[in-house]
Amino acid sequence: MTKRLSREKINVLARQILDFLFEYDEVDFLLEPNEIRLSVVKTLEEELQLYDLIDKKAIEKIQSQKKAIEEGSREWEILYRKYYNDEISKLGTFLE
Fold first, then answer.
1. Which of 45, 36, 42 is nearest to 17 (CA)?
2. pLDDT at position 5, please?
3. For the segment 14-34, what is each residue's pLDDT rounded down to a tens digit?
4. How big is the CA angle at 36 (ends 33 and 39), to the nearest 5 degrees?
5. How many of the other CB atoms lie within 10 Å of CB of 62?
6. Is the pLDDT of residue 96 over 60?
7. How many Å apart are CA 49 and CA 61, to the nearest integer?
8. Is 48 a residue whose pLDDT tops 70?
């Protein structure tokens, strides 16, 4: 269910984040702007991969049901949201 961002869109987001940070005089940068941008890109990609994995797990749980549930149906959407949120909750517990 999640949509994958292209590398180009991730780079645009990273540049926007960096531009936003540069607006603040209180922020001192210890690295070159490109190094910071690359770090932001890497972090965004890791987060997106994590959410893709959560999406995959939620879909696998739906597909493992004894009763076949048609994708896009109301029941499928409800189960997807439930399983997706369950996986997010597990992740939050894991990170604490």
1. 36
2. 86
3. 999 999 999 988 888 899 999
4. 150
5. 19
6. no
7. 18
8. yes
Q: Contact 54/40 with Cβ under 8 angstroms?
A: no
Q: What are the b/e assignments for 30-48, b being 16+ CB within 10 Å?
A: eeeeeebbeebbeebeeee
Q: What are phi and psi of 24, to 5 degrees?
A: -100, 120
Q: What would the 3-class secondary structure string for the chain be?
A: CCCCCCHHHHHHHHHHHHHHHHCCCCCCCCCCHHHHHHHHHHHHHHHHHHHHHHHHHHHHHHHCCCCCCCCCCHHHHHHHHHHHHHHHHHHHHHHC
